[in-house]
């Protein structure tokens, strides 16, 4: 029986050593995990700050069109557009007139200078649509979102908040 008491004592001595070793490995792995997480999450802050300072104001534009109809910004009226819609027969067309809601009045001179570019963006966007794309209210909303996004990509002095169709005929 003395041997069995010694075995119990030895096991009691071994188990704290094993337990301390396991705790040490777990703590080491936790420290490594925290360091990796901090590097992944906090490592890009300097780049983001420097990129934000270098980017034009148009890249600071909200990702969605403005739905604040109580505080509508300055309006910039656009010319009438008549484009063929994408179709197999080529017989459908869209006639539309729109106003661009500006983030600030100081954007108007830039739009005047880039009138041809913005007109080209609008024509390419409209003519890439099918009748099914623009015939529903949801389709018109998606079209507005796309126009705002594409036009804002070329603006520096502000951004387009919304597009308002003042005339929209599909035939």
Automatic annotation (TrEMBL):
<protein>
    <recommendedName>
        <fullName>Flagellar protein FliL</fullName>
    </recommendedName>
</protein>
<keyword id="KW-0472">Membrane</keyword>
<keyword id="KW-0969">Cilium</keyword>
<feature type="transmembrane region" description="Helical">
    <location>
        <begin position="17"/>
        <end position="41"/>
    </location>
</feature>
<dbReference type="InterPro" id="IPR005503">
    <property type="entry name" value="FliL"/>
</dbReference>
<keyword id="KW-0812">Transmembrane</keyword>
<dbReference type="Pfam" id="PF03748">
    <property type="entry name" value="FliL"/>
</dbReference>
<keyword id="KW-0283">Flagellar rotation</keyword>
<dbReference type="GO" id="GO:0006935">
    <property type="term" value="P:chemotaxis"/>
</dbReference>
<dbReference type="GO" id="GO:0005886">
    <property type="term" value="C:plasma membrane"/>
</dbReference>
<dbReference type="GO" id="GO:0009425">
    <property type="term" value="C:bacterial-type flagellum basal body"/>
</dbReference>
<keyword id="KW-0282">Flagellum</keyword>
<keyword id="KW-0966">Cell projection</keyword>
<keyword id="KW-1003">Cell membrane</keyword>
<comment type="similarity">
    <text>Belongs to the FliL family.</text>
</comment>
<dbReference type="GO" id="GO:0071978">
    <property type="term" value="P:bacterial-type flagellum-dependent swarming motility"/>
</dbReference>
<keyword id="KW-1133">Transmembrane helix</keyword>
<keyword id="KW-0145">Chemotaxis</keyword>
<comment type="function">
    <text>Controls the rotational direction of flagella during chemotaxis.</text>
</comment>
